[in-house]
Specification:
This protein is mainly alpha-helical and 145 residues long. Helix content is 50%, strand content 8%. Strand 1 and strand 2 form a beta hairpin.
C-alpha cells in the first residue's frame, strides 16, 4: 500500500498501462509482522510464502479508493505505455524506460500463488486500505482541511 502515493502527482492520479489483473494489496505493517513471525517460528523454516492482502481489486480500483479516502481527486486515468515509452525515448530518461518495461511486464501478469499456508502459519494480513489511510499522518491532515 505504501506505493500508492507514487501514482498521485499533484491533482492527478494515473495507472501506467491498463493493469487489468486482480491483486491483493498488502500493507507494509502486515508484511513486517509476517516476516518477524516467520523468523520466530521453526514451522516457517524453508518455506516460500505467498502473501495476499485482505481485499482484491485492480490497480485502478485500488487507486480510485485511495483517492476517494484521501479526498485528493475524483478521476484516475490510465496512461498508455506507448506514450510513456515515447517520452522516455525523446527525453533519454532511463528511469522512465525501466518503469515502462516493468509496467509492461506486470500488465500481462496475473497474481500467482495461494496465501493459505502463509495465513495459517504467520497469520493473515488484516490491514485494509481504509485502516491504512486512517493511520497515515498526511491523510489525517488532508481530511481535516
Amino acid at each position: 500500500m505504501e506505493s500508492l502515493a507514487r501514482f498521485v502527482q499533484g491533482n492527478r492520479a494515473a495507472i501506467l498501462g491498463q493493469q487489468p489483473a486482480i491483486i491483493h494489496p498488502v500493507a507494509g505493517a502486515d508484511i513486517g509482522r509476517m516476516v518477524s513471525r516467520a523468523l520466530e517460528l521453526d514451522e516457517a523454516l524453508g518455506h516460500r510464502f505467498t502473501i495476499h492482502g485482505p481485499v482484491s481489486c485492480t490497480m485502478k480500483e485500488w487507486l480510485e479508493r485511495y483517492c476517494l479516502l484521501t479526498k485528493r481527486l475524483t478521476k484516475v486515468q490510465n496512461v498508455p505505455l506507448w506514450i510513456l515509452a515515447a517520452v522516455a525515448a525523446v527525453t533519454f530518461n532511463r528511469t522512465l524506460k525501466v518503469v515502462v518495461k516493468l509496467m509492461k511486464y506486470f500488465e500481462g501478469q496475473p497474481e500467482y500463488g495461494n496465501p493459505g499456508e502463509a495465513n495459517r502459519i504467520l497469520g493473515a494480513p488484516a490491514v485494509t486500505l481504509e485502516q491504512w489511510v486512517a493511520d497515515r499522518p498526511s491523510t489525517k491532515e488532508a481530511r481535516a482541511e
